[in-house]
Each structure stands twice: as structure tokens, then as C-alpha cells.
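Q: Okay, next protein. This is DNA endonuclease I-HmuI (HNH homing endonuclease I-HmuI) from Bifidobacterium reuteri DSM 23975. I've checked the sequence twice, so it should be correct. Can you predict the 3D structure?
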Amino acid sequence: MRWKAIAGFDYYEISDSGKVRSIRHKVTCKNGFVKTVPEKYLRPALGRNGYLVVSLWQEGRQSMRYLHRLIAEAFIENPWHLPVINHKNGDKTDNHVTNLEWTTYSGNNRHAYRTGLKKKPVKLGPEEVALIRSSSETEIELSKRFGVCTATIRAVKNHRFAYAKEAQ
């Protein structure tokens, strides 16, 4: 396991396998007392979007950082200055350096469609819109039949759907 300093954050290191630690260092308290802070491994948290994040401190300010971005910035060269980090196996929590690569926004989207992580939206045409409006089935039954959510069915029935004018 290799360790590297995290850019912009004194006293923190990251490993190529995704571990983060604060390194042993000294701090001066308000009363002038010098205290030694021991080495500590940080525990990543799962963010709302499914990516792991860690909380880093610098000069009394907290900063939440994505774990995969810290690893890529430390261990993966980015000569073309690509903006996005892709998880090759599609698992947002697998942050080993061998599972990460720099890519473009469109490359990341293509990868997501190719691997089934992202599905193309179901589009209802004028015929489907007309069938939904004339049907006596429930919203739930229609949503299952057409592969859309009940909110879409409701929008079609209330003439608030994008294809509404084409179907009339």
C-alpha cells in the first residue's frame, strides 16, 4: 500500500487503496500549550449520491472531499486535464486506484449506459399518450404497462405532458 500527502491539507495522507489518515503532528493551543495529535485513520461516510466522502480540516475549517477524487488526484496522472473520475466497475464505493480513471463527462455517461448503470429514458409517443388518456386502468397499472412512474401517467392524463399537443 502506497501513501501520499493530500494536496492542500497538511497532516493528511491517502493510500492507493482508499484509506485516509491524519499524520502525527503538533498544534499550539490558545493557552500556548503545545499538544501532540496522534495519527488517526478517518472513517469515510456515504454521501447522499452514493459516493464516499471524508471530512478534512485545515486551519480550523472543515472540508468534505470525495474519496475517489482524492485518490485520483494523488495517484493517477491526468495529462489532458480531464474533469471526471470514472469507477470502471460501476461501484461508487470501490475506490481502489486500479478501479478509477480520468474521463470526460460524456465518456462517463457513455460508460454508465454501456454498463447498465444508467438507462435511457422511456419516451411516450403520441399513440401511447392517447392510449393512457382513454384507458380506464389505474395509474399504477398504467405505469407498470408503459414502464414509467405514476407521476408521468398523471401528467399525461392532466394534459401536462410534453407530447400532449401531438396526441390531440
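A: Here is a summary of the prediction. Residues 3-114 form a domain with the Homing Intron 3 (I-Ppo) Encoded Endonuclease; Chain A fold (CATH 3.90.75.20). The chain has a mean pLDDT of 92.
Q: Noted. On to the next one.
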